Amino acid sequence: MGADFLTRRCAGAATKVLVVYAHQSAGSFNAAAKDAAVEVLGAQGCTVDVSDLYALKFKATATADDIVGEVKNQDHFRYPEETKLAWEEGKLSEDIMEEQRKLTQADLVIFQFPMYWFSVPGIMKGWIDRVLTSGYAFTEEKRYSQGIFKDKKAMLSFTTGSNESMFSANGINGDMNVTLWPLQNGILHYCGFQVLAPQIFWAPSHVEAEARGTMLGGWRTRLQGLLREAPLSFTPSDSFDGAKGFQLKPEVQEKHEGQEFGLTVGTHQGKRLPPNSQIRAGV
Asked: 250 burial class (0-12, 13-18, 19+ CB within 10 angstroms)?
């Protein structure tokens, strides 16, 4: 599904956007960013649904309570296998089924959150663990570029507690591109999503109100053309040989042998990391 197609659908009030939102306060910067997305995308004709995880008191722990009725193996409960069976039989808990319903309908998913410990808040990680169940969100055959959600787009929109310089290649927190790889590749791209560049609000709690207003203004401007954006680049699944431990195929390695940078942050081939490949599209 191309960006132009999504844009046309949005204009026709058919495109559905899901905002998965995790912040405790309606007066927060994250709330303002979420509200901006609802307003600007809604004004374009999109249908915007918000899963306010704290307001929902969304359960963050992945347990047997997520399955209605008896589990198949009570002696050795294995969450991925049991929830896959429960999804197939329509026996997942009501809250999971509701979120899966919203996700199934969505063309674009925006995760809005404050970065906690270089990742998402626990309640959002619980949404990921419980909603993106095996079978529903991925299978061994359908993942990465051939993933179940390959016709959907997703992105991270988040605030940091540290300044941008601290998340640089020479910064004390390390390169933000490395920080984002597990989230954007290991979760979103793994499920097949076309991953849009993240919207990073650098340390809004440490700047003046005017600067925060500028940040939100930039987000509103981006939202006007968000559905026309190209996604980040990831190495296609067919570049790896499943018969040989999903290693890069020799011809792919040979093709990139003389390149200065590795293919991606994760599949870097022992070379320098491609700069900003998890922050900007087309690099």
From this structure: exposed
Per-residue pLDDT at 13 exceeds 60: no
Tens-digit pLDDT profile for residues 135-178: 999 999 999 999 999 999 999 999 999 999 999 999 999 999 99
Q: Is the pLDDT of residue 74 over 80?
A: yes
Residues with Cβ within 8 Å of residue 188, at least 6 apart in sequence: 154, 156, 195
Euclidean distance between CA atoms 67 and 85, whole angstroms: 9
Which residue, 45, 51, 49, is CA-closest to 15? 45
Whole-number Å distance between alpha carbons of 6 and 12? 10
In the prediction, which pLDDT does 10 show? 56
Rg (alpha carbons) of the chain, rounded to whole number: 20
The pLDDT value given to residue 4: 46
Q: What angle do CA 115, 117, 123 make, to 5 degrees?
A: 65
Residues 114/201, Cβ–Cβ less than 8 Å: no
The position carrying tokens 């999903």 is 246
For strands 240-241 and 247-248, give the pairing.
Answer: antiparallel
Tens digits of per-residue pLDDT, 189-239?
Answer: 999 999 999 999 999 999 999 999 999 999 999 999 999 999 999 999 999
CA–CA gap between residue 124 and residue 54 (Å, rounded): 9
Separation between Cα atoms, residue 283 and residue 270, nearest integer Å: 18
Cα separation values, 258 from 145, 157, 252, 269, Å = 25, 35, 12, 11
Q: Classify burial at 133, counting beta carbons within 10 Å of its beta carbon; exposed 0-12, middle 13-18, buried 19 or more.
A: buried
Point out which residues pair with 201 in neighbouring strands: 159
CA distance 15 to 5: 10
